Amino acid sequence: MEYLGKLIEVGQWISNCCSLNKKMHKLKRKLEDLNGREVDIVQELEYAESLSLKKRKKEVDNWLASVARKKDEVRVIEKAVEQDRLLFTRVQLVKCVEDLTGEVTELLERGKFSEGLSLDTLEMREDALLTTKLVGQTFHENMDKIRKWLMKDEFLTIGIFGMGGVGKTTLVMHIHNQLLKESSTFGNVYWVTVSKDFSIHKLQSDIAKMVCLDLSNEDDEKKRAAKLAQALMRRKKYVLILDDVWNHFLWDKVGIPFRATGCKLILTTRSLDVCRRLGCEVNMKLEPLSEEEAWRLFKETLGHSITLPCEVEYVARSIAKECAGLPLGIITMAGSMKGVDDICEWRNALERLKQSKSGQNDMESDVYQVLQVSYRNLNDSNVQQCFLYCALYPEDYKIEREELIERFIDEGLIERMNDRQTEFDRGQTILNKLENACLLEGVMNNFPHDNKCVKMHDLVRDMALQIANSNSRFMVRAGVGLKGLPDEEKWTPNLEKVSLMCNKISEIPPSASPNCPRLSTLMFQYNGLKRIPDCFFVHMRELKVLELSYTGIEKLPNSISNLENLSALLLRECSMLQYVPSLTKLTALRRLDLRNSGIKEVPQGMEMLVNLRYLDLRVPTLNMLPVGVLPKLSNLQYLIIYGLSKTLKVKGDEVASLTKLETFSGQFYDIYNFNTYVKSLEEGGPSKYLLQVGLDNPYFSPVESGSFDKSVILKSCSISKSNEGEECLVLPTDVQYLYIQECHDFRSLCDISSGKAATDLKTLVINNCEGMHSVLSSSSSCCIPLQCLRSLRLAFLQNLHVLIARGLAESPPVQPDTFSRLKEFRIYNCPNIKTLFFPQLLKHFRNLEELHIEDCGQMVEIIAAPSDEDEEDIYREIENGVIMNCLPRLRVLQLWNLSELRSICTNGVIVCDSLRDLAVRYCSKLKRIPLLDRQPSPPPSLQIIKAFPKEWWDSLEWEHPNAKNVLQPFCQFSRYLNFLSELVAKIIDIISTLIARYSKYDKKTEENMKILKGILGELNNRKEEIDQKIYAEHLSGTQEKEEVRNWLNNVQSINSDIRSIEEELGRKKYLSCEAVGKLVDEKIIQAQELLEKGSSHTRIFDKKHFKYVILGGGVAAGYAAREFNRQGLLPGELAIISKEAVAPYERPALSKAYLFPNEPARLPGFHVCVGSGGERLLPEWYKEKGIELILGTEIVKADLASKTLTSASGKIYTYQFLIIATGSTAVKLTDFGVQGADAKNIFYLREISDADKLVETIKTKQKGKAVVIGGGYIGLEVGAAMRINEFDVSMVYPEPWCMARLFTPAIASFYEGYYANKGVKIIKGTVAVGFEADSNGQVKTVKLKNGEVLQADIVVVGVGGSPVTALFKGQVEEEKGGIKTDGFFRTSVQEVYAVGDVATFPMKLYSDMRRVEHVDHARKSAQQAVKAIKASEGGKSIQEYDYLPFFYSRFFDLSWVFYGDNVGEPVLFQDIQDNSTTRPSSTKPKFGTYWIHNGKVVGAFLEGGTAEENKGIAKIARLQPEAKKDQLEKIGMLIAGLYGSDRPLSCSII
Ligand SMILES: Cc1cc2nc3c(=O)[nH]c(=O)nc-3n(C[C@H](O)[C@H](O)[C@H](O)COP(=O)(O)OP(=O)(O)OC[C@H]3O[C@@H](n4cnc5c(N)ncnc54)[C@H](O)[C@@H]3O)c2cc1C
């Protein structure tokens, strides 16, 4: 029997081992998912914030903070599992891991943020740093220059060099921010600060962190480089910025793919030599500011609104001048003079500056002197000391403000005050003052938490150290890669502060005993230090602050016991620490931080620390706190005490005796002690608390400490009133978060009568309380008021039957505001509740946003039918006799595993107009979805419906016949769940094999290997499926989500792991059989989990839906947007997607005033609709109207059947209506294989970016030679513009005359003559057949077919355009090269319209189909299409499009218009009074042409006409009067005027 008992024990142990490892793996996998989600979210946030002035939601911040905390907790438990400390039983560990897995899963779930991550904000995102402000024309020019270099393929590495303080970092910070906004062009942007303490290893780690690559387990530099290079190469496009590079290194050694396509590198350095040696293709030197710019910056830093009296301004200007044009000096100096108005002070500052600089003549030391003067200007020695203290941190270190203030307090730099809050306020004031004086920069540490930090510019830090070292007071060797202590002679007797933090010091020589009797601060944190010899502290009797956090220290030397002046002993995260000597004599100690250290018992003599203010005993390994210690520590203001041990508890009266507590967190012995403490709070208590009772592992508390300041967690205790009516639980009146678990005696909240006063409760979680029958009872008046409740979670409540138990008929209803602020309601695993809401109750949930109901096996209905008495209820709405149940704010509804659910709303309808996300799985008896099936269109905010199984969805009944169709595009059916269930049997099989096998590692390995390969096969099938999908999408450029990418990488790495295991098995060499067996088992679990995870990747790509999408952001798009707005548009309904980076503008300007040398047209001057005399639509206009401008986004795939557009960066857009407005593209000479046509400086003109490039080159090739190829309107306009720019211009075209498609020879001869007079050489009847380039690849000559060779600095090609329709080929009917439409611009595909250049439409006037590439048509067709769409929605009709062709052009001083059709016989006419106006030499050219076809005037052209005459010829072309040639020749001009004058015409004229 005994033997059997042992066997069972062993079996139990093995099963625990097995279960623990498995669970741990599961936890890690979940954590990986969470990491992936976190990365996605952080990236999305950064993009959203940089792009559109959005700020993240608090909720998202909290989530990120919770993720960080959870990761810490997992790390601790991981360590506990690895080290197998057996501090607590395996069963406890298993429980811990399970709990954590649940919490990580919940975080993952919460991380979906279906409502988006960010909120709109009108506030500008302010630059956090004054120093980030760009001042000076040169800076702006430099920005432009760098941006342009980045656009070019040939410049992959850009070096920016210049002296310290000249503004290199500021410049690249701006570039960085700018690039973030243009991520579709440049891809990801990564910023890494390199600094002096450079090492390949550090640089690798820093870059890896940016690209979310974990290199922590890889030490080999080469392997690290390979991994990093791979990770970078996976990103197709990115810009990597390396700031402050001091040394040359080999890119390959780091793992940065050098000169790889798509990868751009920018580096800043003080030395040109570094740029050269790093192979930069272009280098830019940053020069100091000019005197005037320096003055402007000085004034801006002082404050814009400040006007200085004349005499002060004079001195101030001199001060600015003394700063030698270095922005850092100027800003710091001006910062220190802010608010000074006394002329004497100004003069004094100038004098000091001059004196301090006398004898110095290099600029860098100039700036030092300037900085020193600013330091002196602080005029407060305390503030100055605080400033110097910051120099103890490494260069470029972001110091958290809170931490720094703690240090100031430790150091006594902040005078002692009554409470910590006041001390903190003082600390914040000091830091603000230093920031204001520009001696510190405010920065954010965004990841993982948003933490406010400060940083010192390296020159400022050098200056601070220079001051501090002047009497050898400081020794700072922080973050410089030290491996051992500085030499003995460096430890001089007058040292006061020593910082050796962030090094690699692992040992201190046994005899080291520095003689530093005045040393007050020793900073050793972040070193691998394990031991300190006893003699080390012997000569440091004055030591006040000893910082050893984040070290590997195992045992503190006994000499610490004698440091009687010590006021702060900091040992945070010293997880190896086992021994702390007696603290009996350390009565001066005010702060003791042992958080996450490895001690098991509190240090001896703790009770003597009567001055202790701050005690952090968040120690996982600590067993207990002896009774009687706490009351001795009567000055405590901050106390946190809990660990993994159940026995680490506190007594209520002991904590109550600590009357100065401001922050407290700990676990009480029992509910009695808890009550005792809570009762003491009546006299006031901490402003932050977390009070716990009954938790097995208080270390893993479920509370979200970031969000709640006042939390209570109760587990496994009796909280109901006793039989004698005695109060069992006393709740704090100000509690905000209440978590109740396994308190089985309690039936409803009404059992907690003391809760009546808890009016501020925001979150309530009730978990596994068997006695719980209802949450509230309407018959009781003594319940916790739930008016402020935001979140309610009910889980595993076996006996919960109703939310609110109804009392007797006469009992009062629940208080009116109960649940009125509830936003989130989750109910899981409550198997006995049948109905969730009674109609009468629903009105209380008017603010509910999320409802999750899962695994409630008996749930039959969500909202019950009203009973007779309910009919009286005044709160329900009745519309046309139908009862309307409203949840007006509900966004997310999730119904899972509700096998008995028959109806969502048993009577009437349910209205949820805000619904975005609906998920229904395994609710097979549900036949209708009443919240979706009444309307012909989906709820306005609906984004996604997740339904499973699909057959269930197909079997649903719909009230409106069209409802299902309109909802279909929102649906996702997770078919892999099916696939998974098929696998369940197999997995169970595997698990049982696993359990059996754990006891026999050595025997079954090969069998297991087979199993593993079986699972791997499944896994690879799934991978292949996803790969194929991705591959197909990649062809069109779509990018998968980060999460999916991680998954694919994991599958790849498990494959390679398994290959290695196989090899090991083959060799049976290095690893023991047992080890291999163990590995195989681990891999099986990993593979299963990956499989499970892979099945949930149903959304591989990102999507966004709009009701209307305009594809193309040119002329037509702008006019269409205006028309939509006129017709009525809801915010968020319309999006314009454009390849160009700017809002729609009037394209014709590009070949005209845009190219002029003087007063050129520039945006925002010519945004649509100024061209037709309308309102100018600036980007703000679109924003105001809720129209989303998706700029810089090229659509690379259009699937009209699924109404899906895919962008080059992989974003997917869906729509209901699509307007295609993609315009035309310029025909390229390279398309015809013209030799050398890809040389530099050959331009085309279609988009603003083309025009920008041309303008830039015109500037660099002043008065050079230009060849214009093409004699159409673009050729003529550009030819004129180049001439105006004083270029020597030749125009080449094959036709016998220019604009041959429209002009007659007579018209053309006028213009050709005119051009010749202007000095333009015209070469007709020939074409360019080749180009030659110089050694820089720039065009040099143009070879013509007639043998002529033209010299050229610039070539502009205007040989026509072709409509951009390739995306739609085969999906839509085409005609005459364009997309065929009807007179309403409807294409052959329903709800798809085409306008502008791409449309071939019925030209009513001439009864044929035409495509027109004129701006006037682009505007009008767009308006017509929008009117047609809107009319179709309202069931109305509009008139068919009846267009009169109109075209115009302007060059030099000329301007012509044309209307109608140029067919038939042309008739030239001129001004009757002046027949010289047809001559090219005329000073006022004026003439025209009519075209007579079948006896009627069908077209008219006029040069130099008045507005009236132009109007007249338009009218003539439209009315097509009959006319005779000779008549028109004589009085053509007169007729034009008469028609245009609106006076009645006598028919006899023509
Ligand atoms: C230099 C120049 C001068 C002109 N001068 C005159 C003139 O004097 N008189 C006159 O009547 N007409 C003139 N025109 C013609 C007139 O500008 C066009 O007819 C008009 O712009 C057509 O408007 P649209 O909206 O159809 O196309 P566009 O204005 O060309 O707009 C098309 C837009 O679609 C975008 N786009 C294309 N493909 C994609 C994609 N896959 N994804 C995202 N976005 C895409 C483009 O980037 C562009 O922003 C001129 C044209 C040019 C180029």
Would you write up a description of this structure?
The protein has 1550 residues and is an alpha/beta fold. The chain is 34% helix and 19% strand. The protein is built from 36 helices and 64 strands. The strands form 13 sheets. The chain has a 20-stranded parallel β-sheet. Strands 39, 40, 41, 42, 43, 44 and 57 form a seven-stranded mixed β-sheet that branches. The model is unreliable at 1-11, 120-131, 871-875, 975-1003, 1032-1038 and 1067-1072 (pLDDT under 50). Residues 1111-1117, 1137-1140, 1147-1148, 1150-1151, 1194-1195, 1221-1224, 1245-1247, 1274, 1364, 1367, 1396-1397, 1413-1416, 1418, 1447-1449 line the site of flavin-adenine dinucleotide (FAD). Belongs to the FAD-dependent oxidoreductase family. Its cofactor is FAD.
Determine the fraction of residues in helical runs and give it as a percent range: 25-40%
Rg, alpha carbons: 39 Å
**First-to-last CA distance:** 126 Å
Bound molecules: flavin-adenine dinucleotide
> Which stretches of 5+ consecutive residues score pLDDT under 50?
1-11, 120-131, 871-875, 975-1003, 1032-1038, 1067-1072
What number is the mean pLDDT? 83
Largest sheet: 20 strands, parallel
Q: What spatial form do the alpha-carbon principal axes imply?
A: globular
Strand portion: 15-25%
Tally of helical runs: 36
Based on secondary structure, the structural category is alpha/beta
The counted number of beta strands is 64
